[in-house]
Amino acid sequence: MSIYVYCMNKETNEKWASKYTKVKAVVVQLDELISRIMTDHNIKKTIEGPLSTNRVTARAEAGKFDDVADDHPLKLAKNEIIRVLDLEEHETKDEIINDLLENGRQSLSKYKQEFAPKVYKAAMHENDGPLMKSLKKYFEQLWKIEYGSSNQWFILFLKEYKDTVHYDSVLKRTAEYGNKYSKDSPILSIVLQLTLESIDDKFFDEKNAFNDLWCAITSNGLKSIKDFSDKKKRLVLLQALCEYHRPKLFELLEKRKLDDVVDDEALKLAKHEIIRALDLEEHETKDEIINDLLENGLRSLSKYEEELLPYIYAAALNEKDGKLRKSLKKYIELQWKIKYGLSNQWFMKFLEDHKDTVNYNSVLNRTAIYGNKWLKDFPILSIVLQLLFEGIDDKFFDETNAFNDLWHTITDGGLKSIEKFSNYMDESTMLKLINKKQPVLFQALREYYRPKLFKLLEKSQIPDKDNFYEVALDSVAEYANAYKMQGKLDLIEYLGSFYPFDTKILLQ
After folding, report:
1. How far apart are CA 407 and CA 414, in angstroms?
2. Do 98 and 39 share a domain, yes or no?
3. How far is CA 59 from the centre of its chain?
4. Which of 112, 206, 352, 445 has a CA-to-CA distance to 460 between 20 and 30 Å?
5. Do 127 and 40 share a domain, yes or no?
6. Residue 424 in domain
7. Among the three residues 154, 186, 220, which one is the final residue of a domain in this structure?
8. Record's superkingdom (predicted)?
9. Between 247 and 276, where is the model more confident?
10. Whether residue 40 is found in the same domain as residue 90
């Protein structure tokens, strides 16, 4: 376990901390502390990742005989291939065989000079000759041992298909091309090739249909295969898809778990820095004061004037570049990235692009003073609008209420409605936003309307055919108003005026 001392006076605390071996460092910068904690988490993950020696040894002992039994048929099949090609004494035997098993019979063309003419001719031209039979036997064993040993459903699936013509076709294809069509998940590839019998060799060589199918099903799942009504096949394909996504999902969850820990720690540290700036570490109403501050900004401190030391209260309200203001802005910035940016990478990039601008600091300051007052019911859209419309500065929030007008106009009228606020933005930027050459505002509006529109579409019993919900979302983000309509016919008529589709289908 590593202990860090986070303080204001590094030299004083280093003197006593040096006596304790578990104190890893004394730091005064929050960024340095966060960086050190993240590094520790990564190191810990690396150390804890492999299984312990005892567990590995126990597993090795338990599985020793299984491994020997599994390796034996594969070695026999491999030796049979070596004999068929007359390579027992050949010095480059291993290179040729490894290439053959990885890339199939077609790879032998690179080694033509290494074979006797008769052996090479038979190997390349006899589709039911000794080499193809031996290769098919090897790959069949590989399917069962390497992929089936931990997936009994896959073994049963292979047995069911073994006596079919299509099973032999898939084996031949594998013998010819090796792992070319196995992609990054051989189990899923084999299941697809066996269950979808209509995809024969010409779909691999000419139309590349298998690649299209692979991309579709790994991206969109079973729904990407139309008219696939065979329940038994659907079940086995679903299991294969589970095996495909399992390692990717687990890796993502593990990373997300670590990220969550780091994110939580970063916010806690930033919050603690605010507590220290107000000298509230031992205060009994600390949580109430801090929660109010984070929700309603610096203006909320007027309620707690009696709870704070006079000089701290005065500094908190009057020092625009003081400790509290800096700490509060740091917390808000972290919250933007963690709470809103992690699930919206475009928003994260948008923040990075604007980070060094004067207006970015102005928006942070405004949020520090007023808290969530101007974030409305959708912070992402509010932050995007405040950063884009530089002409709407603080006086337009306090005096003319121009930001409220902008908010209601754009949430009622969509992207196109920003033309009404051309005085607050240069013409070039506005045109880029309207034409979606700079798509950030369009993306923010899509996320704002998404839950509202989808709820209305579902309530209106409008089916999501041919990605209609997303198409409708694009339309509403651009023009709005539709999500407020009550009638199904009105909504369809409205959306149809922007995107051509068969309204009769949606009304069925």
Report:
1. 10
2. no
3. 34
4. 445
5. no
6. no
7. 220
8. Eukaryota
9. 276
10. no
- Residue 445, C-beta contacts closer than 8 angstroms, at least 6 positions apart: 381, 410, 414, 415, 477, 478, 480
- 94 and 215 in one domain? yes
146 part of a folded domain: yes
CA 89/CA 82 separation, integer angstroms = 10
Encoded tokens for 131: 């080499």
- Check whether 113 has a pLDDT greater than 70: yes
pLDDT of residue 454: 87
Instruction: Please give the helix or strand (H or E) that residue 27 lies within, else none.
Output: strand 23-27
Reading the block at residue 499, the tokens are 């995107």
The residue-averaged pLDDT of 167-180 equals: 91
Task: Give the separation between CA 243 and CA 188, rounded to whole angstroms.
Answer: 8
CA 414, CA 431: separation in Å to the nearest integer? 15
Give the number of other CB atoms < 10 A from CB of residue 85.
Answer: 25
Cβ atoms of 132 and 172 closer than 8 Å: yes
| Residue 239 resides in a domain | no
- Are residue 37 and residue 107 in the same domain, yes or no? no
Q: Residue 21 sits in which domain range? A: 3-45
Answer yes or no: do 94 and 192 share one domain.
yes
Is residue 107 exposed (0-12), middle (13-18) or buried (19+ Cβ within 10 Å)? middle
What is the phi/psi pair of residue 319, to 5°?
-85, 105
Pairing of strands 23-27, 3-6: parallel
How many folded domains does the chain comprise? Answer: 3
What is the pLDDT averaged over residues 223-235? 75
**Cα 374 from chain centroid?**
30
Q: What is the pLDDT of residues 279-325, one digit of tens each?
A: 999 899 999 999 999 999 999 999 999 999 999 999 998 888 899 99
Q: Which two tokens stand for residue 298?
A: 């610096």
Q: Measure the CA dihedral 102/108/114/116, to 10°.
A: 130
